[in-house]
Please model this.
Amino acid sequence: MAQERFIIVTGGDSRYYPLMRELVESIRTFPQGRHCPIGIIDAGLTEEQRGVLAAEGCLLATPGWEYDLSTMRTMGQDHVRAEIAKIFLPRHFPGFGSIIWIDADAWVQDWAAIDLLLQAAEMGRFGIVAQTGRFRPTEVTVRWLFHDLGRIRSILGKAARKTKLPAKVKQDLALRPNLNGGVFSARSDAPHWAVFQRRHAEVIHHCRLFSSVQLAFALGIFIDGMPVELLPEWCNYLGPWRYDPAGPKPWVEHYLPNRPVGIVHMAGADAMRRDPDVREQFLGTDGKLHWLTLRYPVWAKRLADGAPDLLAAAAAEGEAQPGQGGPGLQAVVD
Model:
């Protein structure tokens, strides 16, 4: 049987099911994604939800915990099995040349991001986005203790603090940018997987379960020197957000040239992830504030048509929210 070129994988529990469906729908919108294999890591889906996803052509895998973890550590955290499964994906979905992972709380707005992720994997590198650059005001923070004495605080530094890693390794990681595990890619036969698994086994018993995989990624890339391709932020965009009311794709990078976002990742937008009706203010490229949601269904028709609904946008103008908007900015509802 011929090996398929790649598979896109996501996962989570029953709470993430609506978001999973939206991600799948966003993939299927593109001609390249209509018949693209999609894998689902089932970390607590209901039978009905599994049936719907299977009927849509998704391949499902149900992972265990992989390690001998106490009930106290895993209680109420079944969804974290999807996180741990990230470093065992070739086992769960064999028969594919490359694997692209996208968190369930993300969706694809521009297929160019998938193309870059696939290109990175097929180069034999680990494709991922680092949380650094012009959209991050600081790389690390410092807790000042006394005069010039301070403690460095960073995502990786915090994750590694209680592990048994050498002090020099912890110090190195504390100054490194986090490699966001919400979107990444690698060949199924890449040596990275074995390195990540080995590193993960070192730290899983001494750090938070949820942050253990990103720590393993960082150890494999920054300490062990595995080949990596650091992709542009728009391949896994976490904000700050900018809305383009006139362009074919509504979400763009915050600063010029306002390139359309490839993958919209709603990490941290807890209220919006729970409730598709939640709206927040977003600055538009027109200089106005707009009440919007990041959730995919609202934008599906516009993205499919390739143009904004100008009549709806015009009708929304002037419907300001009481007490909202800053100097020189008009808040409008879209």
